Amino acid sequence: MKRVSEKVALVTGAASGLGRADALALAREGARVVVSDLNEEAGQALAKDIDGVFVRQDVRSQEDWAKAVGLALSRFGRLDVLVNNAGIVVPADIETATLEQYRLLNAVHAEGTFLGCQAAIKAMKGNPGATGSIINISSLSAVRGFPGVITYAAAKGAILSMTTTIAAHCREKGYAIRCNAILPGMINTPLLAAVGADTLPGLGQPEDVANTVLFLASDESRHMSGAHIVLDNAASIIGGGA
Ligand SMILES: NC(=O)c1ccc[n+]([C@@H]2O[C@H](COP(=O)([O-])OP(=O)(O)OC[C@H]3O[C@@H](n4cnc5c(N)ncnc54)[C@H](O)[C@@H]3O)[C@@H](O)[C@H]2O)c1
Q1: Binning pLDDT at 50, 70 and 90, where does residue 242 land?
Q2: Domain 8-231 listed as CATH 3.40.50.720
Q3: In contact, 124 and 177? CB cutoff 8 Å
Q4: What's the distance, Cα to Cα, between the start and end of the chain in Å?
Q5: Phi, psi at residue 13, to the nearest 5°?
Q6: Long-range contacts (CB closer than 8 Å, 24 or more residues apart) made by 72-78
Q7: pLDDT tens digits for 67-116?
C-alpha cells in the first residue's frame, strides 16, 4: 500500500530543489501531483516525468492561486495536500537590507503562504469530512539568529505564526484539515548555492525534507497539527546552521 495513494497534492516551487524532491516523493507514493512554479521548462519536464500536471504560478498572485487550485479540482477532482514551498533568498543584514527587499521577501514567503492556505482551505472544505494537510516550508532562520538574512528570516517567522493560527482555526471549526511547518536547516539546493553555502559540511539533502513532507501529507500524521518541525540534524543545538 502506497503512503499517499488517492491523494491529490499541489507543490509550489516544484521545479527545483526541495519542491522537486517533494513532488517526486509524493508521486512515488501514489499521489497525483500538481507541479507549480514560475519556471515553465523545468516544471513541465517534471510534471511529464511523474505523470502530473504543470501550472505556471506566481505565489504572490491571488489569481494564480485560483488557477492552480482550480487545476487540481478540474483535473483530479479534489485537493488533499498543499506544500507551500516556493521561495527566494536575498542576503542582507538589518543595516544593509532595503524596504524593497523586505517587501519582496514578505510577498513571496508570507503573502504567498497566506494566499495558499486560504485557497487550500476553501478547496479542502469540499472534501468529505473536510480533510486535508497543509505543509508550510519555513526555515531554521525563523527561530535562530542568522544575521545575514534578515528579510528572509522575518518572512519565515510569519509563516510559523500563520501555521499555528490556521491549525487552531481548523480544529475549532471541526475540519480535519491539518497545518504544520517544517524548519529546514541548510539543505543542498540551488538556493543554497546562490548564497555560496553549498560547500559547507553536514548539509541535508532535499530527500530529507521530502521524507518529512511525505509523513505530514500521509494519514500517518493524522494527530499532528500546528507542529513546527526543526529538521537540521541538531546543527542548531551544537551552534551551527548545517
Ligand atoms: N535550501 C535550504 O537550505 C533551505 C533551508 C530552509 C528553507 N528553505 C526553503 O525551502 C523552499 C525551497 O527552497 P530551495 O532550496 O528548494 O530553493 P530553489 O531555489 O532550488 O527552488 C525554489 C523554487 O521556487 C520557485 N519560485 C521562486 N519564487 C517564486 C514565486 N514567486 N512563485 C512561484 N515559484 C517561485 C523557483 O522558480 C524555484 O523553482 C524555500 O521556501 C526556501 O526558503 C530552503
Answers
A1: low
A2: yes
A3: yes
A4: 34
A5: 65, 35
A6: 72/8, 72/10, 72/34, 72/123, 73/123, 73/126, 75/32, 75/34, 76/8, 76/32, 76/34, 77/8, 78/8, 78/123, 78/126, 78/127
A7: 999 999 999 999 999 999 999 999 999 999 999 999 999 999 999 999 99
Q: Which atom of ligand 1 is nearest to the CA of 84?
A: 41
Sequence-distant (≥ 6) Cβ neighbours of residue 43 within 8 angstroms? 14, 15, 35, 36, 37, 54, 55, 56
Domain boundaries, the chain: 8-231
List the residue whose alpha carbon is closest to atom 8 of ligand 1: 139
Q: What is the pLDDT of residues 108-154, one digit of tens each?
A: 999 999 999 999 999 999 999 999 999 999 999 999 999 999 999 99
Give the distance (Å) from ligand 1 centre to CA of residue 111. 15
- Tell the residue number behind the cell numbers 541535508, with chain if given: 204
Quote the cell numbers at residue 189: 539546493
Task: Compute how many other C-beta atoms are within 10 angstroms of the C-beta atom of residue 105.
Answer: 26
Amino acid found at 166: I
Catalytic residue among 54, 76, 152, 215: 152
Q: Is 43 in the pocket of ligand 1 (CB under 6 A)?
A: no
Report the residue among 191, 199, 207 best suited for mutation to probe ligand 1: largest number of ligand atoms under 8 A from its CB: 191
Q: Which of 18, 37, 236 to mutate to test the pocket of ligand 1 (most atoms within 8 A of CB)?
A: 18
pTM above 0.90, yes or no: yes
Per the CB < 8 A criterion, the answer to whether 152 and 139 are in contact is yes
Q: Which of 70, 43, 2, 16 is CA-nearest to residue 217?
A: 2
